[in-house]
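Many introductory courses stop at the sequence. We go one step further.
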Amino acid sequence: MKLFTEALKPARLGLAMASIAAGLALAAPAQAQNDKMTPIPVPAQPKAITLDTGPLPGATAPEAWHSQYGSVFARNVTVATLTPFLPDPAKATGAAVIVAPGGGFRTLSMENEGWDVAKALAARGVAAFVLKYRLNPTPQEMPAFEQSMREMFSGVARTAPRMDPQQAMAGIAPQIADARAAFALVRNRAGEWHVDADRVGMVGFSAGAMLTLATTLAGEDAKPAFIGLIYGPLASVTVPADAPPAFVALAADDPFFANSGFGLIESWKAAKRPVEFHLYEQGGHGFGMYPKETTSTGWFDAYARWLGMHGLLKRAH
């Protein structure tokens, strides 16, 4: 556990996170590429449940939200929450998924990689819970925030070293704690939410995929029953003997993670653990639930079929 809780050298972690954050520039559908970041009021989240991990140490800027690419994003999240999206009890399968949006640990794509994913899961009878995990602080004022993002887009991110997931995990201890708290909450309230405590999985996008992997490898009591890693890093990892079934999706033109090999897939196979891998010809980084003219748009249908293949779209007997 020491590897995952000690601070990673800031320069290396910063470059790695810059790679993920720069992916936000590629996350939009083609027609919305020029959308500017527009501040919006923090939306009401009446169903959000505050997790017990406390405020982010040292954070001073308040939580802020903005719209971009026809979607909404949160930043400066200092207190983690979990929002349930529950299916009709008559069609609930008992399976549940914790959804971790991406955004380079600087923002969260709450709609495209959070709420929309959760709604699609609930429509298939799977209880979904969107995790708004704590984030690294960014400048409070929007112009300064935009400038900080432009600086990352200016070339630093594209020259960043290839990310080693197990090293990068060392810098996200607060987020791993948030994920652990999310699993604990869902299992503690499993009866109320018509959830089978043994069938709680996790799906994450970009930085959220890294968090999903970290929760699997270093999350101690979290132990996801199944995981989805959507356009996250694919470097080799040490796979535990009881690693859960994994669904992995990536576009071959992803500028951050498509050119570093497929060590993660090979690691899962070498450990003789179930893994399904979809490499889409096109889609870039951050396609999520955006409608695009690429086959990557079909990732969710493939994921749902994979859930069905593992018996997660029907009630357990």
